[in-house]
Design a protein that fits this description.
alpha+beta; Alpha-Beta Plaits
Length: 119
């Protein structure tokens, strides 16, 4: 199965009710989702099948996060990172640094940095 991913940036992610909704959606759409929650900026990464990623992104849009920005539209993952399998579900980190480490472990640090506007 080809894997797709998307990256979303928001002002912040603090609502536990919205996070619970996203957790349910990640399971429903069989996606891996990583959130940087608790403050500014809010960052969300989603990985899975094409339809699952698109549906998860649509779910985020419907939650009407402040300053929602789709930094990277759902796209096919290329290279070695396409072979890394992550478990379905939603996972959270507290800092941008931790999020960067998670991206680096997946071979996506440069992609993530460009999408976030860091480079």
């Amino acid at each position: 199965m080809a894997l797709f991913h998307a990256l979303i940036r928001t002002h912040h992610i603090t609502s536990r009710k919205k996070v619970a909704h996203l957790r349910k959606a990640a399971g429903q759409f069989d996606c891996y989702a990583l959130l940087r929650s608790g403050g500014c900026p809010g960052i969300m990464y989603c990985k899975g099948g094409e339809e699952g990623v698109k549906e998860w992104v649509s779910t985020v849009q419907r939650l009407r996060y402040k300053d929602f920005y789709l930094a990277c539209k759902p796209a096919l993952i290329e290279g070695k990172s396409a072979q890394i399998r992550d478990p379905a579900g939603l996972f959270e980190v507290d800092t941008v640094k931790e999020f960067g480490v998670a991206m680096d472990k997946r071979g996506l640090f440069d992609w993530w940095g460009r999408a976030m506007g860091f480079s």
